[in-house]
Amino acid sequence: MRDDNHTPVLCLASASPRRQALLASIGVPVSVMPSDIDETPLEAESPTAYVERLAVAKAQAAVGKTALPVLGSDTAVVIDGTILGKPNNQQHAAEMLRMLSGRTHQVLTAVAVSGPLGILSCCVATDVTMRELTAKEIACYWLTGEPADKAGGYAIQGLAAIFIEQIQGSHSAVVGLPLFETTRLLRQQGVPVWAGRYPS
């Protein structure tokens, strides 16, 4: 029988409904405490170092405000060494999608979890190949509202799934949280996940 206890066992330092849903899918009920931090990249900072630094900073910002372990995470879409964040407007989103169209880019998602071992973190890289997009598809996609708050201007778990030709790596990391690696960090910090509540 599935455990119906919804008492939070983790504090999620993010307002992302996608991360909440991913954690719920592995049986980890959370309380939500978004962290407001400066997300400006440092000079000469690599994309990997950038996302991992932000994930750790988000977790650290919530530590001390809750008795629960804290999970912070950050996702970035990277192409030609350039980090693509969330689009500022329709023109910005269209520019990003034109950059990604017909090419392979990388999605980096970092996770940091606080607990008895301090803050443990990791970063997962996934290669995503997007088919060629027409100008009309890009314009129509913006009108759905989906790209507005997504890194790189697209949501692989949404309508943009039809744009994706191939993925090499973690699908859940592209959505917002690499579940395999996240489970490992949670267990190291003593946070129960669904599978861990049953005898082996």
Report on the structure:
The chain has 200 residues and is an alpha/beta fold. The protein contains six helices and seven strands, in the order βαβαββαββαβαα. Helix 3 crosses helix 4. The mean pLDDT is 93. This is dTTP/UTP pyrophosphatase. Nucleoside triphosphate pyrophosphatase that hydrolyzes dTTP and UTP. May have a dual role in cell division arrest and in preventing the incorporation of modified nucleotides into cellular nucleic acids. Its main location: cytoplasm. Its cofactor is a divalent metal cation. The active site is at 74 (proton acceptor).
Q: What's the mean pLDDT score?
A: 93
Number of contiguous helices:
6
The global form is: globular
For this structure, the quaternary state is: single chain
Residue windows where pLDDT falls under 50 for at least 5 positions? none
Give the end-to-end Cα distance, rounded to a whole number of Å: 15 Å
Biggest beta sheet attributes? 7 strands, mixed
| Class from secondary-structure proportions | alpha/beta
Radius of gyration: 17 Å
Protein name: dTTP/UTP pyrophosphatase
Cofactor: a divalent metal cation
Subcellular location: Cytoplasm
EC number: 3.6.1.9
